Amino acid sequence: MKFEDLLLEIGGFGRFQILILAILCLPRINLPMHFLLHNFLAATPSHHCAIPHQEAFVNLTTEEVLLISIPRKPDGTFSSCEMFSQPQFHLLLNSSLQPENKSSIQHCQHGWVYDHSQFTSTISTQWDLVCEQRGLNQATATFFFIGVTIGAMVFGYLSDRFGRKTMLQLSLVCSVAFGMLSAASVSYTMLAITRTLTGVALSGLSLIVLPLGMEWVDVQHRTFTGILSSIFWSVGNMLLALAAYLVREWHWLLVAVTGPCLLSIVCLWWVPESARWLIAKGKVKQAHRHLLRCARMNGRKDFAVSPEVRNWRSRHALTKMATDKNMGGSYSYISLFRTPVLRKISLCSGVVWFGVAFSYYGMSMNLTGFGLNIYLSQFVFGVIEIPAKMVMYVLVNRVGRRQSQAWTLILTGLCIGTNIVIPKPFSSVRSVVAVLGKGFSEAAFTTVFLYTSELYPTILRQNGMGYTSFMARLGGALAPLVFLLDEVWRSLPEVTYCGVAVCSGAVAFLLPETLNVRLPEGIEDVE
Q1: What does the pLDDT look like over 463-487, one tens digit per residue?
Q2: Helix, strand or coil for residue 491?
Q3: Neighbours of 478 (CB within 10 A)
Q4: Where in the chain is the domain with CATH 1.20.1250.20?
Q5: Where are the transmembrane segments (predicted)?
Q6: Which CATH superfamily is domain 333-526 in?
Q7: In Å, what is the CA distance from 186 to each residue of 176, 182, 189, 201, 251?
Q8: Exposure of 414 in the CB half-sphere (CA atoms within 13 A)
Q9: pTM of the model
């Protein structure tokens, strides 16, 4: 008797599964509020060098003081990182004149003055992470994703070893602790360390929530479960825009996006451990207790008295099922590469995950590049994800997982590439193309979570998700640093995002199709 057959007897998608999914959607909402927080936490408002002895220019307007103190860039705007060593009073007569001496231009000597009309404070304004320190500002996101990368490996292994629910609880508690410590940071070093540790903790949420939900539903509802979970990511995206709009001070914004984890900790007590995992580990009594609870809640009261289940209740029968098809034994990340088919799946899915995350975060962290207000961009990028997911719900069941995964990635790359050639003045066209690209990017992310959880067998599923999540977070960690390449060539970041997305989409064609295929339990099922 297969576990899928057992699920059909106790109800593969009833009130029990709906309750689990509803509770697991809470931490799902919270994830993007941290993963995309860098857009607001480290936002850099317009700024210029602080002008010393400004009180000496009481007879001049603010514009005139800037004119004699700050050089202009070729586009006519005032420089953010340079100032005149001496006031250039002759520019008051004719602002188009050049400074009398080029050597009079120097880097900011007395700090910076920031425009606080949009942000009360960010880490950029708090610690002057601009100009020569701009790299440290972008590195904040990289530190966070390095933490997520480490956490993917740690929680992937631990959740296969000690259980999905236990590690999810640990992840939530640590997320609250490190999130609050981040909000209390008194130096950039403290913030970098605590944000890295927050990334480690949140990685458990990202890694465990979807597989835990999917391991309780039948084959027919796996796609729906994956899409539903992904929709709540988009809800979190939109709520982040609202939270950032209402809370303009970075310390309190961190508190606002961390607080909801407390509700998830409380609600998680009603979520059972994965019965699949319990069976795979030979924990028969616990598995049977959860299955009976599922049957009762789903109205399958005859489950406990059916002859087949009476036999199933014996520890010997359950253990036989658990050890069938290589279900027993100890497995690690090395097991993902020992057999030919699993090796191919692991290599290809790693490339796909890297490409999905690299292009997704490349677009998500460039909110100011399309001519829209930063809060509106965040909200619109969240809204467009929902219809993208709805379309994917149909596509993955019609054309299959593999085709959907490949083409959404390729189209994401093409949209990014298209915006390279569209002139900056056409901001409306650029915005439309960017929103389309964001939709394709989110569709690729939605598909890859569902697709990967179906590719790996139960005994290696969390190891597989841990490895692929590691590759994704590696992409996420590198994505913000690529923006620094604009100093080499203005369009180089976009060219990089485009190329990676298209190439990883092509690799997706090498993966096997999983549409309407039962979840594999052991390695032999895959091979």
Answers
A1: 887 788 888 888 988 988 888 888 7
A2: coil
A3: 18
A4: 333-526
A5: 139-158, 170-191, 197-217, 224-246, 252-271, 345-363, 375-395
A6: MFS general substrate transporter like domains (1.20.1250.20)
A7: 18, 9, 9, 21, 10
A8: 10
A9: 0.81
